[in-house]
Design a protein that fits this description.
The complex is a heterodimer of chains A (427) and B (370). Chain A has 427 residues and is of the alpha+beta class. Chain A is built from 12 helices and 9 strands. About 7% of the residues of chain A have low confidence. By secondary structure, chain B is mainly beta. Chain B is 14% helix and 37% strand. In chain B, strand 4 and strand 5 form a beta hairpin. Classes of the chains: A alpha+beta (427), B mainly beta (370). Strand 5 of chain A pairs antiparallel with strand 3 of chain B, so a sheet runs across the interface.
Chain lengths: 427, 370
Amino acid sequence: MERERGIIKENISKKKIVFFGIVPFVILGMMIVLILSYPSLFFNSQIIPVPEISIEKVEFEPLKIIATVRNTGHSEVSIVQADVNDRIHSAAMEPDSRLERFESATVIIPFTWNEGEPYGIGLTTDDGTRFEKTVQFATLTPQPTVKQASYFALIGTYVGVIPVMIGLLWYPFIRKLSLNKYNFFLSFTVGLLVFLGIDALLEGNEIVVRDISSAFHGQMLLIVIAILSLVSLIYVSSRLVKKAWAKSSDPEPVYTEVSKEDSSNVSSIHPSKQQLIIRPVALSMMIAIGIGLHNFGEGLAIGAAVLLGEVALSSFLILGFTLHNTTEGLAIVAPMARNKKLAIAKLILMGLIAGVPTIIGSWIGGFLYSPIATIIFLGIGSGAIFQVVYSVGSWMYYNNNRALTSFPIVSGFMLGIFIMYITGLLI
Amino acid sequence: MSHPKAIVLVGVIISILTLGVVTVLGSAKDENSTSNPKQFGGHTPGYGTYETTGSVLDPTSLPTDPKNSVVDPMKFLHEYNYGTVSHSANGSIIRDFTIIASDQNTKEISPGVNYNVWTFNNTVPGPTLRATEGDLIRINFINNGTGFHTMHFHGIHPSEMDGVFEGIAPGGKFTYEFVAEPFGVFPYHCHIQPLEEHITHGLYGALIIDPPKPRASADEMVMIMNGYDTDFDTENNFYTVNGIPYYYMHHPIQIEKDKLIRVYLLNMLEFDPLNNFHLHANLFNFYKTGTNLVPDEYTDIVTMNQGERGILEFSYKFPGKYMFHAHKTEFAEKGWMGTFLVNEPENAVNASSFTNTTRGISNMTTGGLT
């Protein structure tokens, strides 16, 4: 009796639930249709929407300047005039000069520009409002030729691959260290990872400010992507680790590889927490992937900087990147150093995973620059790095008697983040 | 457990449908882009000519015929309003003018650019009023605007006719009455504060007072240098002579070889302290303010501050096309340039047909500003 009543009640309530779930959507839909059908009921028709366009990209071709413009206002807009340095010029607009909301088009201005000079590209909308984008350094836009691609590959190799590989050479050194010194270097890598994660966000923010209209809420997009990337990577990696432990025939947790003075700590770790602890190789791989994503973003930024004439790539700049990124190799080898087996092939693979994305990034950034795509990648990269920080942090936490406040750890972290700042000054 | 999922599913479907409705309503666009390629660029030496299937943005060489144009510069060039003439008891001439001020019109000031202009008699610049020294000028002023406006004339007149202290309210009327003196060329403009706002929106024009003994017969024209600050940043976006940027580049002013040309030139530009006029391949006699019959200077360039004006007299020795423009090159490259087409006297008859054919002359220099 009791049970039957419960079932009936449940059925009714389920229908009700469905009903009450739909009602708000129906009302919302009706409201939207009403507002769109009779806007004059709701809005003063006297108010003329303010036009807003953003010039997202300016490219320099022989005897031509090409600008990509997007309507980021709330209503359609016509572009009626183009200028270079505030002087009106003949121009064409493809596909046409009328832009729907969020539509973009290309403006072609025949112009004999001079290499290395700054230019302001202006567009005027039909209400006479002028919008401008300044390019600091006019330079021929890289064309996707083999020569240009190999140039980017060379830059990417110098900036991404070589420094990481150099950093990997610390592997034998780290292997020989006592736990305290080892902890120092591990937290050192955490420090530099935190720096890189913040760096990616700031770089993304620069792009948002420079190239992305406020209509896209670029800063929020960057942070949302970073958080989504962080949370989903934490979830995925914990699932993978659990599966790996379940399959593993090796019952011995890796953190028993601690030196004598800390051996008492091992027994204090709760067995149920063992599954949350990641193997050093997996941890190194995660770091390599995180750094790879970061370097992909860095590559995008380098390619875009060349494309946008923001930077003249000098040997000094390359040197700065090289010094800066060498520490990334250290981050990869640090967790692996506790592993018994020497795994040179794996190390090289990780080095490539971390470094090669710089090359791919520079190709994409240099040939197909899109500010939105760039900040999405920077957001993912930043989230991935913070996920690695989380993983290394928790690994250290369980390996050090659930404390992260020992002197080697704190000093290593601080030095790591500070050295990144110092080497970053070279860029 | 399946029902909550169903709710979510239904919710998702409804949101997709709603988004669909929004997208459909929002994308009611008409595809009117034609596929036949148009040429652009190429009117300046060193610049290639390109073809596009898109839209051409080019006030510098495309003669457009705006439907809602702020003024017809070709008509304005030669149009003088002498008023309705009557005679007083003592036989002197009375000229009655009607001037209506408005401030609610949005007009096209450059191809595609619409701007809220404030006008005297619906044009920027306002009508050129003309009288002879000693005539009685009576201006029946009607303010059809939404704010206070006046007419302030340069010249000699009583305080109450100065159009400064008695603003005319919206819907109000006033008759400005004064004797035209001295001879010369004078601006008139609204004198309500903020002055800059009233002037830059277009409330100005020219008053020509001829000397009692007329000047030598000439092909006369009025040129008012002005600008438009269409985005209200106190910097002009456009510079023109007679209201529309580049107009006389694609509609050259037809003149006759060896004929005396007389230009009444006024500077009504706001924001920029200086403006100037430079004539190519020629020199002119300049009569500052036009108040003297003896030229002040024989030159090819004259620079004027805000409100300054004068008379230029010249004739061309050789036929052909000649530029005139601001030698402040920024202004030139934002619209203040034009051309004279000097014809042999017999060609002058066919001037109107020539206007269309000259469009084909592609080696016209907009870049050679010297």
